[in-house]
Amino acid sequence: MKERREKLIELLGDYPKAKNRTVQLIRKETKNNYILESLLLQLNEEESVPAYFAKPLKQDDPLPIVIFNHSHGGNFDQGKEELLVSSSYLQSPPFVEAITNLGYAVGSIDMWGFNERKGKAESELVKEMLLEGRTLWGMRIFDNIAFLDYLVERTDVDKNRVAAIGMSMGGLMSWWLAALDNRIRVTVDIAAQVHIETLKQKRGLDHHGFYYYVPGFLKSFSTLSVQALIAPRPRLSLVGKDDRMCPIEGAMLLDEELVKMYRKYNAEDHWNSRIVTGGHQETKEMRKQWETFLQKHL
Predict the structure, then answer these.
(1) Three-point CA angle 161, 163, 166, nearest 5°
(2) What is the signed CA dihedral for 77, 142, 194, 238, rounded to 10 degrees?
(3) pLDDT > 70: what percent of the chain?
(4) Number of structural domains, the chain?
(5) Which residue range or ranges hold the Peptidase S9 prolyl oligopeptidase catalytic domain (predicted)?
(6) Which of 4, 142, 165, 178 is the most exposed place for a label (fewest CB within 10 A)?
(7) Residue from 274, 272, 289, 204 nearest 239 by CA
(8) Which pLDDT band holds residue 276 (cuts at 50, 70, 90)?
(9) Residue 17: which pLDDT band, with cuts at 50, 70 and 90?
(10) 3-state secondary structure the chain
(11) pLDDT at 1 over 90
């Protein structure tokens, strides 16, 4: 597994990780049920990374931490604000309330090109990264890994109880993070079980942005081989049956193979795939399922 991860990281391109990580607390606010920190982190050598960290009120002991990965949706103004204010395709209350109400801490960053980092268009970032031997998807992943480095060093975080969650691009980020970093103990992806081979076969590649495509990926990997790196850690994958961005044929194929894989580890209950009513969205049913899954496994 180590060699496969190293090869995958190589495909994602170079990463100018910060030689000296710095953390600046911009603001600390007390909300109704949680404390919210606005942070500015130096995670790479290119630009600072705005972030949120929230935890339940009156909690001093180390808490499980959930990394919330925001979606794309073509809304470059949103970014990590999606943690605080649900996008139209997400349920209410927003994730910050849902997660802290479960007794967990939660953190989120603006990914490259979003919200406070939207100085350059995504198309320009893709081209710039490729010219420099990088990929935008890789840079977004590496920032999140560096963010995890910071989170697990906090005294109010239990470094052994880490989860990742997100929808659409955020869901893709969640399972890629888990595949590349064993510190992610529990994974929840919503509307993100994209079997790239089926997507290609059905001519659905244009349903996803340029940012997601990694040169040479299919020469050395498959979607299944990446997701296999997560096993046997707990993972819940939620897909709407009418979601054109996650072809059901591909989701079913992955489920069939991952069931076999988790069975080999005697960890059948750690893999949970659900294809439910709905499209490219988080439904009430999905919200209930991921809350229950986190409570059981985190």
Answers:
(1) 165
(2) -80
(3) 100
(4) 1
(5) 133-270
(6) 4
(7) 274
(8) very high
(9) confident
(10) CHHHHHHHHHHHECCCECCCCCEEEEEEEECCCEEEEEEEECCECCCCEEEEEEEECCCCCCEEEEEEECCCCCCCCCHHHHHCCCCCCCCCCCHHHHHHHCCCEEEEECCCCCHHHCCCCHHHHHHHHHHCCECHHHHHHHHHHHHHHHHCCCCCEEEEEEEEEEECHHHHHHHHHHHHCCCCCEEEEECCCCCHHHHHHCCCHHHCCHHHCCCCHHHHCCHHHHHCCCCCCCEEEEEECCCCCCCHHHHHHHHHHHHHHHHHCCCHHHEEEEEECCCCCCCHHHHHHHHHHHHHHC
(11) no
Separation CA 235–CA 247 (nearest Å): 19
Token pair of 165 as six digits = 């969650």
Strands 49-56, 105-109: parallel, antiparallel or unpaired by DSSP?
antiparallel
CATH of residue 144's domain is: 3.40.50.1820
Could you identify the residue written with the tokens 């801490």?
A: 105
* pLDDT beyond 90 at 72: yes
